Amino acid sequence: MASKPARNNNSDENILELKAPMEEVASKIKPRINEGYILIRFEVLSENELKHAEASFKKWNDYNTLLLKSLFTTNEISDEYDASSSISFISQSWHDEYRIFLDYLHSKISTLESILGRLELFPIASTPTPPHQVSISTIPKPQSVFIGHGRSKLWARVKTFLHDDYGINSFSFESETHVGESIIPVLQNFLERATFAILILTAEDETAEGKIRARQNVVHEAGLFQGKLGFNKVVILRQDGLDDFSNVDGLQYIGFSGENIEQAFYEIQRVLKREGIIK
Questions:
Q1: Where are the domains of the chain?
Q2: What is the pTM of this model?
Q3: Protein fold of 145-274
């Protein structure tokens, strides 16, 4: 009887496995999905802004590929991500390119969500890669508060309150010059720097119906920072007399009357303490 060939325990066959525990891998993928949705939220109003959006997408997309390669023992998952959808801008107006760009971005996000949903199906490598080789960064960011506002100067009182009473650094568009820069990379930088955000909605713009509403850029920023930081780390200060609008329907806000923004300081202090920004 012919003997069976000896089993080669050192097979070169690669097995698709996680390089780290599932929870750790998930914690790396989830922020990439959130950042993808932030890219979608940016409103592109010109061909130049579309170019900036595409450049931001390329950085986000390339990083995702490298991250997936670092989280799995083979390139099967990163190859799946790279193969998801394709983009082609041939003889298109920038409006058409923008629609195609959004479809492509949605496809990439959907692939990341699919990978995240399948993590429990993958075994963990018997000798997982040490966490420092797959971790992006475990160093907490210093506390930094973004203050979004319209034309009203009330924001300066909030900045002084944070600094003088609690030593908290804050920043806004006025903190540094952005001449010649597109709004997209500027906002992305703000989103990365901020650990907390305060958006001040003041009565400034009159609608065709004669109602008064807040500057729409501030409303847009509120949504962006809520998407990035979570609802608990974004405070909306709302001046009395503003017309109600769907963007903040159902959301909690701190009200104040007229120019008396100091009325909101006690509640701001309570939220900062609740979120561990101050003690």
A1: 22-134, 145-274
A2: 0.56
A3: Rossmann fold (3.40.50)
